[in-house]
Design brief:
This protein is an all-alpha fold. The chain is built from six helices and no strands. It is elongated, with a radius of gyration of 14 Å.
């Protein structure tokens, strides 16, 4: 699982390089875009992977937490929260390593616009 986490996520790459030192607050349009990105992640999980009711509840709670946090914390702090929440989803939902790798890669892609220098790529089947 750790190799899946370390090797595939744009979020992890950003954490390693420290490329985003900006901790400014998200603007209202950015929070709207963030909500759309989190909805893409949610839709991908629902449409692609069979998850239990308990895992689905965990996923919903973590993604809702991230959406709400965007109004309270700066973007660098939010990225740290996002990283933890995504790992929490992987572990809590007991994703197989291949599913974890796929999920983190797609989450990193959906949220890459926050980092700034990695283009936003839509998740398969969403846009």
């Amino acid at each position: 699982m750790w190799s899946a986490i370390a090797g595939e996520s744009a979020l992890v790459l950003n954490m390693k390089t420290g490329a985003n030192e900006d901790n400014s607050m998200f603007s209202s349009p950015e929070r709207e875009r963030l909500s759309q990105s989190l909805n893409e992640i949610r839709a991908y999980l629902v449409s692609t992977h069979s998850v239990s009711a308990g895992s689905n509840k965990l996923i919903e709670e973590r993604l809702r937490y991230l959406e709400q946090a965007a109004g309270r914390v700066g973007r660098k702090d939010w990225m740290n929260l996002a990283y933890g929440a995504l790992i929490n989803i992987v572990v809590g939902a007991a994703f197989a390593p291949s599913v974890a790798k796929d999920f983190l890669r797609l989450a990193g892609s959906a949220l890459a616009w926050i980092i700034g220098d990695i283009p936003h790529v839509l998740l398969p089947g969403h846009g």
